[in-house]
């Protein structure tokens, strides 16, 4: 990662409240040029508010919003070099497809011939080259989505903001659009800031994810980092499926849970500290009961297509979720085994800064 | 069998409505058309129409009616659009809307008489004009006061449909317009106004058509300086007893209304679709 590059967007201590209700609590984030970022969190966590603050539709109550090193808190939305793809697309129904895409260019008094070529290019970019004359009401939801993207991209923004743009599409189309958006971003090399509550979408598309809850950014990092090393219970639960079990850190690289001691890959905590242990369902392998590190009894299972989702309980009544390619027999005991790296230990109430510092410290050893 | 029963039960619901339309809309219009082909002596003739379209008096009345209906509609629109727009920005739009609608609960005649009081030589309007040193003036029985009072009476009927279309406008359209670089004025003229045209058209229909046949206000407030078609119909039915001629004017008015409805309903292709939240 280049150290000297100026972040294209920087939020410093941004807060937003409506009356007594705090929507954003001290948000700090930096976006580098040319990357695909995702704000991920449940509805009402404030992710869309961050987008609106950057777009200029809402003012931050406190803090600073910088664009390319310039403070833009007081710059009206129509003068910011960012464009938005709206959740409901917000295509103007009184204009056809080409008129919608040309709207911004006309406002900027671009020459007529240039408007025409740029609109054509933008429509070609989203594979709608022949759709210019169609009315908005005549095209499908997926096509409207593309027009909305073309309308924003034709303005050649430095940052494209996408507010849950895929949420109204069906599963198949959504998957196609994920690939297409990712591809578009890489081809154009502009910064995308994508808002979603769908963790799969976030993991699949992003260079970096910011996981949010309750007006705060809990953790930022690459999809792999966040999946493998969630900072706390919420993140572990929200990203993918997890078994989260209370445990005790005995010493560095040794953790105790369900009454047994296991070797693990985590360190930097106090001896005897109460922690939470995360084990991903797909990291658990089923073996014969006498060979398992843990013995659990299968309660129920669901066939999910490419795997079986097995729910089992251990003797302490902890629930264990296991993803297995082979079915298990309900009501029978099975053994579970896993590698030390599969265990991820989380401290309670650790901040992101402390978490990063600790990780750096013991990873350097 | 069962389906047939349900079908006939459903049609039964329409009976009161159809009866109403037949008795109070279709039948009177047919009677009016029938009546318009008889002269004052009860003989069948086309003379009424010939007279209407060859007499400068009637043509002048037509021009006057259309012109004043246009002025009233324009004044109403100029007041109502900003009102509806601001109403949508307020915290309690329903309360303000109620206040705007309330005057319609009062009888038209009462309101007209109230304005006679307000606009009279010793009325409150002239008291105010004297106070600021430019009065008293002749306010009553002027064309200005006629348009003023007519617009006052029509405003609620214009505000309501416009308010509805503005409040149903998705806020993301406005944000999208700003996002693409539009100033507030450009957003208004290129997005908000075109998208609220259905409300404006509905308001124009609701105001222009009744304004065409206004007759009481022309006398009470306008002092009969402008003779509109409405006044002419009243005169023919109640004073000269030339029902045939009165009916002819009525038929002309109905045709004018149909033309206006057709004009304001036209070009539906792009408006009114997908506008709601």
Automatic annotation (TrEMBL), chain A:
Residues 9-239 form the ABC transporter domain. It is an enzyme of class 7 (translocase). The keyword Thylakoid does not apply. It catalyses: ATP + H2O + polyamine-[polyamine-binding protein]Side 1 = ADP + phosphate + polyamineSide 2 + [polyamine-binding protein]Side 1. It comes from the Bacteria. SUPFAM superfamilies: MOP-like (SSF50331), P-loop containing nucleoside triphosphate hydrolases (SSF52540). One of its GO terms (cellular component) is ATP-binding cassette (ABC) transporter complex. Its EC number is 7.6.2.11. It holds the Pfam family TOBE_2. Belongs to the ABC transporter superfamily. Spermidine/putrescine importer (TC 3.A.1.11.1) family. The complex is composed of two ATP-binding proteins (PotA), two transmembrane proteins (PotB and PotC) and a solute-binding protein (PotD). Part of the ABC transporter complex PotABCD involved in spermidine/putrescine import. Responsible for energy coupling to the transport system. This is Spermidine/putrescine import ATP-binding protein PotA. The gene is potA.
TrEMBL record, chain B:
Residues 62-264 form the ABC transmembrane type-1 domain. It is found in: Cell membrane. One of its GO terms (biological process) is transmembrane transport. Keywords: Cell membrane, Membrane, Transmembrane, Transmembrane helix, Transport. One of its GO terms (cellular component) is plasma membrane. It holds the Pfam family BPD_transp_1. Its main location: membrane. It is a multi-pass membrane protein. The chain crosses the membrane at residues 12-34, 66-88, 95-119, 139-163, 241-263. Belongs to the binding-protein-dependent transport system permease family. CysTW subfamily. This is Spermidine/putrescine ABC transporter permease. It comes from Lactiplantibacillus fabifermentans T30PCM01. The lineage of its organism: Bacteria, Bacillati, Bacillota, Bacilli, Lactobacillales.
